[in-house]
């Protein structure tokens, strides 16, 4: 009986020892799995770093960023060595813990291995967190840094600061970055607006897109033409900016210029291939726009370039309708002298005389009447069966006496 009891106790000891060995080995396997996952996270972080670096133009990549990326790669290599050392240590411990031996010695050995495994697991958890957050933290810092450089670029372009533009681009600002607070303008839009030729040339030399579009499809050439910066218009055209580009209202750069005061800008665009018969999506030609703003020399310049004097827009209005409506009496005089027809009716049946009388435009009304208009023109009725005289009576202002 004593021998049987001894055999049973010895069997239990061996079973307990095997159980502890299994638990210790399982713990090691789980720890190794955690390390492998951390290693994968670390590898992904390094890939993210390399992609971030690849997105920056190499000729403009700041030296500080190069050093940071190199440091990140070195840290990643060191981390890899540390992982390998920990794995080798765990494998060695697992191998030594698998052998047989006396029951009491096996139990003590397994308990020691479990303590070491727990300590290593705690260390590995720290490494896992570092590996997972390292790349994201770096990318967040990069995003903030590039954001500051971008703001500096746009601000410098707005003020015509060529040196500031160069500095911002060296710091990583994308040369074609769009300003979300200004309908998507790029630095080139800003430089074209303020008339800084040196800044425009610097941006173009660094790769700025001469045909970049804002949220409303406005290009830098539209902006330069609108602000009458003829030297920048010439520079942008030389660098491939399209004279045929339209914004979301259908304006070409030439149509932008037509509403301003510099005939030279419009002629420059025309020589570069811009069409004189282009119109906005509402049908307004360069002559409509010039007449609306009332600049006599622009009206004369557009007429001299061959734009039809009685071209109609989408509402059937001629340039004379627009000039009379806005009381641009000098433009009215120029248009009439150039052969504009005062009897043309728009889609509402109104002549330029109706437009002037209905809005109380006394000076334009007097210019039109002075042309010796026939009774047919004076008493033609619009779609609402109203004559110019009736509209003048409603408007008052002594208009009836003029008629």
UniProtKB/TrEMBL annotation:
UniProt cross-references to PROSITE patterns, sorted A to Z: ANK_REP_REGION, ANK_REPEAT
Compositionally biased spans, kind Acidic residues: 1-13, 76-94
Ranges for the ANK repeats: 183-215, 216-248, 249-281, 282-314, 315-347, 348-372
Molecular function terms, GO-annotated: ubiquitin-protein transferase activity
Gene3D superfamilies on file: Ankyrin repeat-containing domain
Basic and acidic residues bias (residue ranges): 41-64
UniProt feature, compositional bias: Gly residues: 95-104
Short name of any one Pfam family annotated for the protein: Ank_2
Protein's UniProt name: Uncharacterized protein
Coiled coil: none
InterPro entries linked: Ankyrin_rpt (IPR002110), Ankyrin_rpt-contain_sf (IPR036770)
Region of interest (Disordered), residue spans: 1-64, 76-128
Highest classification ranks of the organism: Eukaryota, Cryptophyceae, Cryptomonadales, Hemiselmidaceae, Hemiselmis
Transmembrane helix among keywords: no
Record bears the keyword Mitochondrion: no
UniProtKB keywords: ANK repeat, Repeat
Segments of skewed composition (Polar residues): 27-36
GO biological process: protein K6-linked ubiquitination
């Amino acid at each position: 009986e004593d021998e049987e009891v001894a055999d049973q106790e010895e069997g239990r000891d061996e079973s307990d020892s095997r159980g502890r060995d299994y638990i210790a080995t399982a713990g090691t396997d789980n720890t190794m799995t955690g390390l492998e996952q951390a290693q994968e996270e670390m590898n992904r972080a390094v890939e993210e770093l390399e992609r971030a670096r690849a997105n920056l133009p190499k000729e403009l990549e700041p030296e500080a960023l190069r050093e940071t990326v190199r440091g990140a790669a070195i840290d990643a290599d060191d981390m890899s060595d540390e992982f390998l050392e920990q794995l080798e240590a765990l494998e060695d411990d697992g191998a030594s813990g698998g052998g047989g031996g006396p029951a009491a010695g096996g139990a003590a050995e397994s308990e020691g291995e479990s303590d070491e495994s727990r300590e290593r697991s705690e260390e590995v958890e720290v490494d896992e967190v570092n590996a997972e957050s390292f790349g994201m933290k770096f990318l967040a810092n990069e995003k903030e840094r590039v954001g500051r450089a971008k703001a500096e670029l746009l601000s410098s372009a707005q003020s015509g600061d060529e040196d500031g533009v160069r500095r911002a681009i060296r710091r990583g600002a994308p040369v074609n970055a769009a300003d979300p607070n200004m309908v998507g303008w790029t630095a080139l839009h800003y430089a074209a607006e303020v008339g800084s030729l040196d800044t425009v040339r610097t941006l173009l030399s660094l790769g700025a897109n001469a045909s970049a579009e804002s949220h409303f499809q406005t290009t830098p050439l539209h902006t330069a033409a609108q602000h009458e910066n003829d030297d920048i218009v010439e520079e942008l055209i030389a660098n491939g900016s399209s004279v045929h580009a339209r914004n979301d209202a259908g304006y070409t750069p030439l149509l932008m210029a037509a509403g301003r005061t510099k005939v030279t800008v419009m002629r420059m665009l025309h020589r570069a291939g811009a069409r004189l018969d282009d119109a906005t999506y509402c049908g307004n030609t360069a002559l409509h726009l010039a007449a609306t703003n009332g600049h006599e020399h622009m009206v004369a310049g557009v007429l001299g370039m061959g734009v039809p004097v009685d071209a109609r827009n989408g509402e059937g209005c001629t340039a004379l309708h627009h000039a009379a409506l806005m009381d641009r009496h000098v433009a009215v005089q120029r248009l009439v002298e150039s052969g504009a027809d005062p009897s043309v009716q728009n889609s509402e049946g109104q002549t330029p005389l109706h437009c002037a009388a209905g809005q109380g435009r006394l000076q334009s009304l007097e210019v039109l009447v002075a042309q010796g208009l026939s009774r047919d023109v004076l008493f033609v009725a619009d779609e609402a069966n109203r004559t110019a005289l009736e509209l003048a009576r409603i408007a008052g202002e002594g208009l009836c006496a003029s008629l």
